[in-house]
Write a structure and sequence with these properties.
- This protein is an alpha/beta fold.
- Helices cover 47% and strands 17% of the residues.
- The protein is globular.
- 41% of the residues are buried.
């Protein structure tokens, strides 16, 4: 191909070479580790398209300092958001020579008011781009519109809110992941087994938009596939004694109860109560989300049948890199970038953690 393609994007090169955009980025800038095989693929594509980087534009861009804000929930070590943050840190290391700094602002993931209040602080500062954990629909939309007015690019991670002007989304298809959970649970308990949905919250608070969409996908899959059992819903809190009473009452009143699901990353808390302290006299199959350490341990010992994972670290990494590539090179990613819905069982979890 003799013609110089002036508007070729990193993502275009990645698709042609069948590698990740991050690999192309590392080859172009000669930094980081790239296998010989992948480097050869990228260089072959660069030669084929006669790739000529715009050195002048890049030089001008690198003289400016860019601030990317990461607006995510506060987290503890070993949590889902800690995993996502590892991806952000990895991206930040790659950007250290590009005059891009990563800043953080945290909110309470179970408190919509906390998100709203912290979002007000964003608008008082000057950021060039923002990564938003889109947990609450209305305040996320409000923040997005304010950023649109200021022409500040932003990406969503973890949960998607449609019909907004976000540059990109990185995360799972929450509706489909709920449907996958329903299919797996129905496979375990049959079409007539009773199941429950456990809403595990702190005392304050409210589920995320993602959790709502997962539950919708779960319920609609069961309805569309002739599920004949009953679906119970139970509210569990940080009050251990109250949670124990609620679970025992549910079990005693419903002897045909045979399965349960938790739509956030806290299925391990249900395991701690359900299997150790309730009047459970028969097996209950559980499905949870996210391969965090405590959930993985429950999976390994057989107290959780399946974990669904959405590669949170890659979400964080890709979100930051998409914004940095846009700021530096004007490259636009695909708007919707769904993560795989990984189905984890005790027989494959160790291989997953080796990735």
């Amino acid at each position: 191909m003799s013609e110089i393609r002036k508007n070729v994007r990193i993502i275009d090169i990645a698709r042609m070479a069948k590698v990740s955009p991050g690999t192309v980025d590392r080859v172009l800038h000669n930094r980081g580790k790239v296998s010989a095989d992948k480097r050869e693929k990228v260089e072959a594509v660069l030669k084929e398209i006669n790739y000529q980087p715009n050195i002048m534009a890049r030089s001008l861009a690198l003289k400016r300092h860019y601030k990317i804000l990461v607006f995510v929930p506060a987290f503890e070590k070993g949590s889902y958001w800690d995993s996502l943050n590892r991806g952000i840190v990895s991206a930040a290391r790659e950007l250290v020579n590009f005059n891009i700094s990563i800043h953080y602002l945290h909110f309470d993931q179970y408190d919509e008011a906390s998100f709203t209040n912290q979002a007000k602080l964003i608008l008082k500062e000057e950021y060039d781009a923002i990564v938003i954990a889109a947990l609450f629909e209305k305040p996320v939309v409000d923040l997005s519109r304010a950023l649109d007015e200021r022409e500040i690019p932003y990406v969503y991670i973890d949960s998607i809110i449609n019909h907004q002007n976000n540059l990109a989304y990185y995360g799972a298809n929450s509706y489909d992941s709920g449907a996958v959970a329903a299919k797996l649970l129905m496979y375990d308990v049959g079409k007539d087994g009773d199941v429950f949905i456990a809403n595990i919250r702190t005392n304050k608070k409210k589920d995320s938009f993602q959790t709502y969409v997962r539950e919708k996908g779960f319920r609609e899959y069961l309805s569309e596939n002739n599920f004949e059992g009953q679906i119970f819903e139970i509210e569990l809190s940080d009050n251990y004694a109250q949670t124990l009473r609620s679970l025992n009452s549910l079990i005693e009143k419903n002897p045909r109860l045979s399965g349960g699901v938790v739509f956030n990353s806290r299925v391990h808390e249900l395991v701690d109560v359900l299997f150790d302290n309730t009047n459970l006299s028969h097996e209950i199959k559980l499905i949870g989300y996210d391969a965090i350490e405590k959930n993985v341990e429950a999976l390994r010992v057989g107290k959780v049948s399946f974990l669904l994972s959405q590669r949170s670290d890659i979400q964080g990494y890709n979100g930051v890199k998409a914004l940095s590539n846009y700021l530096l090179f004007g490259t636009k990613p695909d708007k919707t970038n769904y993560m795989p819905i990984d189905i984890l069982i005790k027989e494959n979890i160790d291989y997953y953690h080796n990735m």
